[in-house]
From TrEMBL:
SUPFAM superfamilies: Glyceraldehyde-3-phosphate dehydrogenase-like, C-terminal domain, NAD(P)-binding Rossmann-fold domains
Sorted UniProt keywords: Amino-acid biosynthesis, Diaminopimelate biosynthesis, Lysine biosynthesis, Methionine biosynthesis, NADP, Oxidoreductase, Threonine biosynthesis
GO terms for MF: aspartate-semialdehyde dehydrogenase activity; NAD binding; NADP binding; protein dimerization activity
Binding positions for substrate per the UniProt entry: 154, 233
Family to which this protein belongs: Belongs to the aspartate-semialdehyde dehydrogenase family.
Full protein name: Aspartate-semialdehyde dehydrogenase
Catalytic activity: L-aspartate 4-semialdehyde + phosphate + NADP(+) = 4-phospho-L-aspartate + NADPH + H(+)
Job description of the protein: Catalyzes the NADPH-dependent formation of L-aspartate-semialdehyde (L-ASA) by the reductive dephosphorylation of L-aspartyl-4-phosphate.
Gene3D superfamilies the UniProt entry points to: Dihydrodipicolinate Reductase, domain 2, NAD(P)-binding Rossmann-like Domain
SUBUNIT field: Homodimer.
Amino acid sequence: MLTFGIVGATGAVGREVVEVLEKRNFPLSKLKLFASARSAGTKLQFRGGEIPVEELTERSFDGLDVAIFSAGSGPSLKFAPIAARAGCVVIDNSSAFRMDPTVPLVVPEINPEALKEHKNIIANPNCTTIVTLVALFPLHKKFGVKRVFAASYQAVSGTGAQAIQELKRQVSEIEEGKPVTKEIYPHQIAFNVIPHVDVFLENGYTKEEMKLQNEGRKIMSHPDFLASVTCVRVPVYRAHSVAVAAEFERPVTPEGARTVLAAAPGIKVVDDPTRNVYPLAIHISGKDDCEVGRIRKDCAFENGLSFWVVGDQLLKGAALNAVQIAEILRKYL
């Protein structure tokens, strides 16, 4: 039985981690919740009781076996090394350590063996990367992916709880004929799409858009993997969707792809367009597995395949993936 901590417990992902631990009946002897001083004192429900949220300090990790961090890169960079030195294994949801060559970057369905090399810090990949690779990696193993062109349709939950509230507020403002107020996004998100997720880089892509290539290379152990991505924020509360056009080294057919994906962990094939059956964000919300559909031969690539994959950003894209890592870690602790 592990002693467990959650940093950023009152945020959207942190609260989801608490629910996932309870839902999966994770074997722990103690759960401690941490957040900023502003949130300290808040109580969260867990297994029929209430757990008070404590202010995060340098002594918070004494006696803890595992801590999931969901508080952003700043707190992770400051406190994760402190936790690691105290003997606590950190599973970090931020981008702080993802590209550190000494830190495993793990999707349990893809590279669980990477956990054997951890030095008390493990990185949870970007949410869009996870959702995409859960579908792409089984195809890569069979057909050898060379490059992808992708467009993501990302829910506001990826920005956090305040963004969810902003979307709700803007919808109400529009319905009531009031001026639309903006605090989180540079433009109105209600009834709109914004082709801008994260900050822009010198190459014209955003940091978010480069994550699929950079993180994908590390997770799949595929240094030549190429990905050109456009990330778009859409007025959906939770669940990210990604349209992928992939080129492979070996010939691939839709039928062959469906056979591979039907046997892959963490992904379900939902693909009957003649009956209007395909993955939808509204249907995947709250579900552990990702779904893939619209599988078809890509008409621009010789060995190409196009597909549509959807996953709950707060679950498989963040909280669930982190808890699944913790479940595997139990074998090594």
